[in-house]
Amino acid sequence: MVKEEWRGRASGAVEGLLSEVASTQQVLGHNERIFSCRCSRVFEGKRKRDEEGASSFVLIATGSEDKTVRLWRSEGLDRKIKLLHVLKAHDEECLSVSWSDDGKTLASCGADNTVVLWSVDADALDDAPPRVAGRLVHKDHVYKAIFKTGSVIGCEGESDVLVTCSGNQILFWGLDEVL
After folding, report:
1. What Rg, from alpha-carbon coordinates, does the chain have?
2. Where are the domains of the chain?
3. According to the record, where are the WD repeats (predicted)?
4. The CATH number of 28-178 is which of 2.40.50.140, 1.20.1250.20, 1.10.3210.10, 2.130.10.10?
5. Three-state SS for 29?
6. Is 131 exposed, middle or buried (0-12, 13-18, 19+ CB in 10 A)?
């Protein structure tokens, strides 16, 4: 349900949309504000099929003011969301999270001037959390990281690159050298 004070600030078509749309699930887990939420690609799991026969799932990463990254799984026909792991590697707020295209690497950006790269084995998450695969240190808060595969301006050849923004800089990192 939408709070009344938001309706007063909405305009045009958005106002009607806000008053009629309701969320399908509410998931609680962080102790402070959530700054970022990103979904991975869809995995066709090697995991056991659920009762309905569905085996595909999506991983959801959230970054928060509580300095943690939380990893969730959404699966089954009803797409119920389950908390898998609480990842702790930042000394300050986690400002954003980003998935690589293949879903094997998660980047978390922090107010502690770091990007933490997590190695994710989607089929083993029931047994073990992702491990820290690398850490990129910046001079200022890191607000965003984007994975890019292929040719990138400012980078030589074809390779996997992580683009980060920190302070007044955009930085390009060759993942072959970092991971």
Report:
1. 18
2. 28-178
3. 87-121
4. 2.130.10.10
5. coil
6. exposed
In this prediction the pTM is 0.79
Q: What does each C-alpha distance from 139 to 21, 135, 146 come to in angstroms? A: 42, 13, 18
**Ordered DSSP codes for 91-156:** SS-EEEEEE-TTSSEEEEEETTSEEEEEE--GGGTTT---EEEEEEE-SS-EEEEEEEEEE-TTS-
Tens-digit pLDDT string for the chain (179 aa): 333 333 334 444 444 445 555 667 777 788 899 999 999 988 876 555 445 555 788 999 999 999 999 999 988 767 788 999 999 999 999 999 999 999 999 999 999 999 999 999 998 998 999 999 999 999 999 999 999 876 655 555 556 889 999 999 999 898 877 66
Q: Which two tokens stand for residue 44?
A: 């066709």
Structure tokens given for 171? 């930085």
Determine the Cα–Cα distance for residues 38 and 144; give it in Å rounded to an integer. 12
Residue with tokens 């995991």: 47
At position 145, the amino acid (one-letter code) is A
Largest CA distance in the chain: 54
Residue burial 80-96, b: 16+ Cβ < 10 Å; e: rest? ebeebbebebbeebbbb
